[in-house]
Prior knowledge:
4-stranded antiparallel sheet; single chain; disordered N terminus; Beta-lactamase Inhibitory Protein, Chain:B, domain 1; alpha+beta; 4 strands; 30% helix; 3 helices
Amino acid sequence: MYRHRVAAFVAAFAVGALGFGCATATLQNYDKVSLGMSQEQVLAVAGKPHHKFRMESTGQGTILPTPAGSSDAWFYNGGMVQFHDGKVVVKGVKVE
């Protein structure tokens, strides 16, 4: 009985660690993200972001053009996606 529990735990951990059923966040996958995609589509294509931020803006006086209201920014290694009303409105990559 104990062996079966350990085997089930190891199998579940391996599936989670390997990311079965979800995309891996790489720049190659990130390149497939396009403007207008939903958050669900971005997750399916680019995978889980490394960091997420929620932002509030008046839409005025910002460094980058930002729609008024609430928006989300997802950060990947080397890339960023900004959502407004659940759709991608900004996509950027790190430049040197």
